[in-house]
Design a protein that fits this description.
623 residues; alpha+beta; 3-stranded antiparallel β-sheet; 19 helices; 22 strands
Length: 623
């Protein structure tokens, strides 16, 4: 038998013996913890936990950073991962992968997390302000871990409160101390022994308090040894008695009856005059001396509302007197004019309460007397129409038409006529009135060339004979057109009121009178057989006048014939320019009158052209 055969046989025997031993142990129930067997199981388990990575290497269970949780909440977990660094322990992983993590989340996941520094009773040994609390009044200090980066720290909570919340009037930070100091000695229930005024409340509603923490810094408010001393010192003139009412046994500022009513009455100035009265309600809505006070309600009404015609104040008395006898339906026995309405729509009434103070309006015993006194000239008859049996101001025909005619001043002159429509749109004497429509047209529209008023007559006369095509026999200038383009016409209706434009018997007379100086000849060209504009003599006129061009900057003085009417004339062109175009910037008129050597501004064009023209003016020195 060879050596190799002997070795193989020996191995088989050892394996068989090992199997027999394990089988025997299982059958007999004897526990065997063979080191060799355990090592073999671990090796088998490790082979099963192997993960093959992309580069051919293998990965086993180890501690890896969990990058998907983000930096602040990142931590390490036991896993197989080919894409992140591996660490033998969780602590090593936190130190390696999350070394700068200020939140400390990774380390906090350890079974026994280490601390960044020694701590007393679970927290840091330093305190820092909790800036995360957005409300200053609620801010305080803490030593909770971890310490935020960049946050100031203090050796004690008290030092932190003093350093970070020194001006905190709410005292929240100091109240978090194990034994908070007080700015003043305090009793049970957060109540101090010093009293201070409640300045945060209105005067009439404020009192004194000793609640802590104090809502002010040292010296911010006066303090008093007792509540009564505080009320006397801070609210000495408080007529509402609010401060004193907070005392355990409050004194009264004045005797009061049931229902919180005082014995003094005061006027209700917060209400309108006609609606106000007198009251003794407490607390008083004013400070000492702010309003007059009276012993009785009647005395108050007489003193404060003596002229109140509405009777509101007196009506609040237990047995109110009446300011005047009243009839049923809240109606008084005297009448007054309705000044709040327009003249043509107003009347007289006796409605109560009165909408005015004593003497504010005249009053009358009867409605008729009121209408006669206040609306004597009211042509609309509105006031009289409110009487039980109203008289008529004037006889009226069917369709609400009166017998008097008046001009329609609300319309333009050329479109207006005369009417007898009621009610009248004006007060007494506001417009002239006429017995007939034709009398009105003659009196109010005597010069109305449009004939609008007369055309409204049942059988209207004509204002003047007219030719075919609605043409009149009088000619007038067309002022609505430019001077050079205007002429004379006899078109009807006339576009102007009586006397608004001059009129002429013939078109030629109109052209001569209105457009004598019209160089364009537009007016004369409109004649059936137009003459020439005018014969001219050589050299023109011996006087000069402004050319009347539309552009002032280009205006010059001329002596061309014919001379326009109503234009100023001058003995020389220069004198005309000085008077008519003296403010021309470019001196166009003077350059024309005197010549180009008058000014540098007379030389225009390009630089080369200006040099040529300036050569003829050696006296000029132009830039």
């Amino acid at each position: 038998m060879t050596l190799a055969s002997l070795a193989l046989l020996s191995s088989l025997l050892v394996s068989a013996d090992a199997r027999n031993v394990r089988l025997l142990t299982k059958v007999t129930g004897t526990h065997t913890d063979s080191a060799a067997t355990k090592d073999a199981d671990v090796i088998d388990q490790e082979h099963r936990d192997l993960v093959t990575c992309g580069d051919g290497s293998t990965s086993v269970n180890a501690w890896h950073p969990n990058y998907s949780a983000g930096w602040t909440n990142g931590y390490c977990h036991l896993t197989k991962d080919c894409n992140s660094p591996s660490y033998a322990t969780e602590l090593a992983c936190c130190k390696g992968a999350y070394a700068g993590q200020t939140s400390g989340h990774c380390v906090s996941q350890l079974p026994n997390p280490p601390t960044t520094s020694p701590t007393a009773t679970g927290g840091l040994d330093v305190y820092y302000p909790l800036y995360e609390v957005s409300d200053w009044a609620g801010g305080h200090c803490t030593n909770l871990r971890p310490l935020p980066s960049g946050r100031p720290s203090y050796a004690t909570m008290l030092a932190c409160c003093k350093g970070a919340y020194a001006g905190q009037e709410s005292g929240t930070c100091l109240s978090k101390l194990p034994s908070p100091p007080t700015t003043a000695p305090t009793g049970a229930g957060g109540v101090g022994t010093l009293w201070y005024p409640e300045y945060e409340k209105s005067w009439a509603e404020a009192g004194c308090s000793n609640k802590t923490p104090l809502p002010f810094v040292s010296g911010g408010r006066p303090t008093f040894a007792t509540q009564l001393a505080c009320c006397k010192g801070a609210y000495a003139g408080q007529m509402s008695g609010k401060c004193l009412s907070g005392l355990p046994s409050p004194p009264t500022t004045s005797p009061t009856a049931a229902g919180n009513l005082g014995t003094l009455y005061y006027p209700e100035y917060e209400k309108s005059w006609s609606e106000a009265g007198c009251t003794n309600q407490l607390p008083l809505p004013f400070v000492s001396g702010g309003r007059p006070t009276y012993d009785t309600q009647l005395a108050c009404c007489k003193g404060a509302y003596a002229g109140q015609l509405s009777g509101k104040c007196l009506s609040g008395l237990p047995s109110p007197p009446t300011t005047s006898p009243t009839a049923a339906g809240n109606l008084g026995t005297f009448y007054y004019p309705e000044y709040e309405k327009s003249w043509s729509e107003a009347g007289c009434t006796n409605q109560l309460p009165l909408p005015f103070g004593a003497g504010g309006r005249p009053t009358y015993d009867t409605q008729l007397a009121c209408c006669k006194g206040a609306y004597a000239g009211q042509l609309s008859g509105k006031c009289l129409s409110g009487l039980p049996s109203p008289p008529t101001t004037a006889p009226t025909a069917a369709g609400n038409l009166g017998t008097l005619y008046y001009p329609e001043y609300e319309k333009s002159w050329s479109e207006a006529g005369c009417t007898n429509q009621l009610p009248l749109p004006f007060g007494a004497g506001g417009r002239p009135t006429f017995a007939t429509q034709i009398a009105c047209c003659k009196g109010a529209y005597a010069g109305q060339l449009s004939g609008k008023c007369l055309s409204g007559l049942p059988s209207p006369p004509t204002t003047a004979p007219t030719a075919a095509g609605n043409l009149g026999t009088l000619y007038y200038p067309e002022y609505e057109k430019e001077y050079a383009e205007a002429g004379c016409t006899n078109q009807l209706p006339l576009p102007f009121g009586a006397g608004g434009r001059p009129t002429y018997d013939t078109q030629l007379a109109c052209c001569k009178g209105a457009y004598a100086g019209q160089m364009s000849g537009k007016c004369l060209s409109g004649l059936p057989s137009p003459p020439t504009t005018s014969p001219t003599t050589s050299g023109g006129l011996d006087v000069f006048y402004p050319s009347q061009v539309a552009n002032y900057a280009l205006g010059t003085c001329i002596n061309a014939r014919p001379l326009p009417s109503s234009v100023p004339t001058f003995s020389s062109k220069a004198a005309c320019c000085t008077s008519s175009y003296g403010s021309q910037f470019d001196l166009a008129c003077m350059c024309d009158a005197v010549g180009i050597c008058h000014s540098c501004k007379c030389h225009t064009g390009t630089a080369a052209q200006q040099n040529v023209t300036l050569a003829g003016c050696p006296a000029l020195s132009c830039p």
